[in-house]
Specification:
Elements (H helix, E strand, L loop, with lengths): L1 E3 L2 E3 L8 E3 H8 L3 H9 L6 E3 L2 E5 H9 L16
Antiparallel strand pairs: 1-2, 3-5, 4-5
Length: 81
């Protein structure tokens, strides 16, 4: 929970909740490059402060719990029935 202009903003984490993508990579097993890709594409909540990206442990946990299908997508889907 962050405070901005003396108002509480529930959808933004506090500064003490932020972790670098390097820290998130150590906890999640993803590479920092993959986490940055997810952040840049809006699949993982993250913010860029200066030249560094930050996220939260909660955002990483939510992404890991969601259904995601990494890897190349097939252009020719064949019916196996």
């Amino acid at each position: 929970m962050a405070v901005k202009n003396n108002q509480i903003n529930d959808d933004q984490p506090g500064i003490d909740e932020l972790i670098t993508l390097s820290e998130a990579a150590e906890k999640s097993g993803f590479t920092t490059r993959h986490l940055r890709y997810l952040a840049e594409n809006g699949e993982l909540w993250a913010r860029k402060l200066g030249r560094n990206w930050f996220t939260t442990a909660q955002a990483v946990e939510e992404y890991m719990a969601s259904e995601h299908h990494p890897g190349p997508k097939s252009k020719n889907i064949k019916d196996v029935s």
